[in-house]
Amino acid sequence: MVKLEIHPMLCKSCGYCVKFCPKSLLEIGTLRSPRGFLLPVMKDSASCIGCMTCAVACPEAAISITVGGEENG
Ligand code: SF4
Ligand code: SF4
């Protein structure tokens, strides 16, 4: 079980996570962060393989991924 969290105070809506997810699971959504940026959303969390590509690609370190209860990023 993979849990992905995007921290709204860090995300700047650059779209790198959307671009680099090998399974195209992320998209820029319609909800704005407190800082005014549109936040990415997970389209299909059940298909996430926990590869952490999105977390590594994020220049703001805004993505945390928890695999099996252990936080990795
Ligand atoms: S961990 Fe991998 S598969 Fe899951 S959303 Fe991020 S890039 Fe996509
Ligand atoms: S890569 Fe990081 S800063 Fe850019 S849209 Fe994704 S979560 Fe936001």
Automatic annotation (TrEMBL):
<dbReference type="InterPro" id="IPR017896">
    <property type="entry name" value="4Fe4S_Fe-S-bd"/>
</dbReference>
<feature type="domain" description="4Fe-4S ferredoxin-type">
    <location>
        <begin position="2"/>
        <end position="31"/>
    </location>
</feature>
<protein>
    <recommendedName>
        <fullName>4Fe-4S ferredoxin-type domain-containing protein</fullName>
    </recommendedName>
</protein>
<feature type="domain" description="4Fe-4S ferredoxin-type">
    <location>
        <begin position="39"/>
        <end position="68"/>
    </location>
</feature>
<dbReference type="Pfam" id="PF12838">
    <property type="entry name" value="Fer4_7"/>
</dbReference>
<dbReference type="InterPro" id="IPR017900">
    <property type="entry name" value="4Fe4S_Fe_S_CS"/>
</dbReference>
